[in-house]
Amino acid sequence: MKGVVLLSGGIDSSTTLAVARDMGYDTFALTILYGQRHEREVRSARDIASSMGVVEHTTIQLPNDMFRSGSLTTDEEVPEVAGAEDNIPTTYVPARNLVFLSIAVGYAEVISADAVFIGVTSVDYSGYPDCRPEFIRSFQETSRLGTKRGIEGHPIRIITPLIDMSKEEIIKLGRKLGVDYSLTWSCYRGGEKACGRCDSCRHRLKGFERSGIEDPVEYEVVR
Amino acid sequence: MKGVVLLSGGIDSSTTLAVARDMGYDTFALTILYGQRHEREVRSARDIASSMGVVEHTTIQLPNDMFRSGSLTTDEEVPEVAGAEDNIPTTYVPARNLVFLSIAVGYAEVISADAVFIGVTSVDYSGYPDCRPEFIRSFQETSRLGTKRGIEGHPIRIITPLIDMSKEEIIKLGRKLGVDYSLTWSCYRGGEKACGRCDSCRHRLKGFERSGIEDPVEYEVVR
C-alpha cells in the first residue's frame, strides 16, 4: 500500500506521517511551498521525512504570490493572541487545503497510491474552514467524482487520523510512534529559534505542557 | 464584478472568456502549465487574453513531472482515433480540473473575485470524469465549505457556460462574441501547424465543419 502524506514539518503532519507508517503504508511525503515565511519548516519537513524512512519526499513550489492574502504570506504582523472561536484568523490562507489536497490526489493517482493523509484537526479548531470534517468529506466525494480512479470504483481515500484529537493527544501518540519532535517546527515566524509568542507556538507549548512531555525545541522567550 | 477565467488557449476556454466578458465581468485570465507538450497553447492563451482585454493574465507553472501519467505529458503516442464513450482516454491527466479549479478558487479569493469560469463541456464528452456536471456541482460545494468566502455566505461561483453546448454551438457563440479563432490552438501535438489527426484536431475540425465557419488555423494535413 502506498500513501501520500502532506508534510509541512510541524507536529500534526509529522505525527500523521508516523500514523501512516504505523498503518503499514509505504509513505510518499509531499511538501508544498507557497511563499510562506517559515522556510524553516521545509528544513524540518526534510529532516522528518528522512528520519521516518519515507520512500520519496517531493517538494512543490507554488508561485510565491499565489496565496498573498493572510499574514503568513505577507508583511502583515503575525498576531500574538489567538482569534475568537467564531472568527477566521488572519493566518487563514485562501483555499490552502483545497489546493494541497487536490495536488496530493493528482500525485497519488500518478504513483498509484491508495490514500492521501492530511493532519487536520478540528478539536483545537482555530476557525479555519478547510480543517473541518464536513470540508474533508465533501472533498473526498469531489475527488472521487473527478478522477479516473474514483470513477472506476477505487477512489483515493482521504485519511485524517488526527481529526478528533487535541494537541496533547497528538503529541502523546507521536511520541509513542517514535516521532522526533526536536526536528519539527511550528512557529509562524521564521527565526532560528521559535518565537514562543505566536498563535502556533502557544498552541504547541500548551499541548506539550498538558501532555507532560518537554518540548525539545528552543524558544526565544525564556519561559 | 471580477471573474477568474481558466484559459488554455483552445476554443472552449477562449469562448468562455468571451462569455465572461459579455456577462460584464472584469476578467482575470489564469493559465496553468503542467509540462504539457503543447507549449504552443500558451502563446495562444497570451494572444487571446490580450485580444480580449483581460485585466490581468497570470501564468502558473506546476512542476513538469507532477502529472506524468497520460499521453499529454509523457512520450506515449497521442492516439489518433477517439476512444470509445465508456472509456477514459489516455489523454486524461490525473485530477487536472480538480487542481485547476482549486488554484483558481484560491486566486479568486485573493483578488476578491466573485466567480471562476471554466470551459468544460459534457456534450462532446470524451470520457473525462472531471468535465461532468456532477463533478462541477460537487466541487462548488467543497470550495464553499473550504473557503472563508464560502463560510461567510459569499461563495465563489463556479460558472461553466459551455457545459451543455456542442463544439458547433460553441464556435457559433464565440464568433458572435468576437473571438478571433485564428489565435486559438487545439492540437495535442506541439508542431508549428496543427496535425489535423489527433483527437482534439478532429473534434475541432468537425465543429467548424458543422458550424459552417472556416477554421482559420493551418493544418499539416491537406484536407
What is the level 1 CATH name of chain A? Answer: Alpha Beta
Q: Please tell me the overall pLDDT of chain A.
A: 87
Rg of chain A to the nearest angstrom?
A: 17 Å
Largest interface: A-B, 41 and 41 residues
What proportion of the residues of chain A is helical, as a percent range?
25-40%
Please, could you describe this protein's structure?
2 copies of one chain form a homodimer. Chain A is α/β, with parallel strands linked by helices and 223 residues long. The first copy, chain A, has one domain (2-211): HUPs (Rossmann fold, 3-Layer(aba) Sandwich). Chain A is built from 7 helices and 5 strands, in the order βαβαβαβααβαα. Chain A has helices at 11-22, 40-51, 96-110, 133-145, 148-151, 167-176, 199-211, and strands at residues 2-6, 26-33, 56-61, 115-117, 157-159. Chain A has a 5-stranded parallel β-sheet, sandwiched between helices. In chain A, helix 1 (11-22) packs across helix 6 and helix 6 packs across helix 7. Chain A binds chain B through residues 60-63, 66-69, 88, 92, 94-99, 101-103, 105-107, 109-110, 129-130, 132, 134-135, 138-139, 141-143, 145-148, 150-152, and chain B through 60-63, 66-69, 88, 92, 94-99, 101-103, 105-107, 109-110, 129-130, 132, 134-135, 138-139, 141-143, 145-148, 150-152.
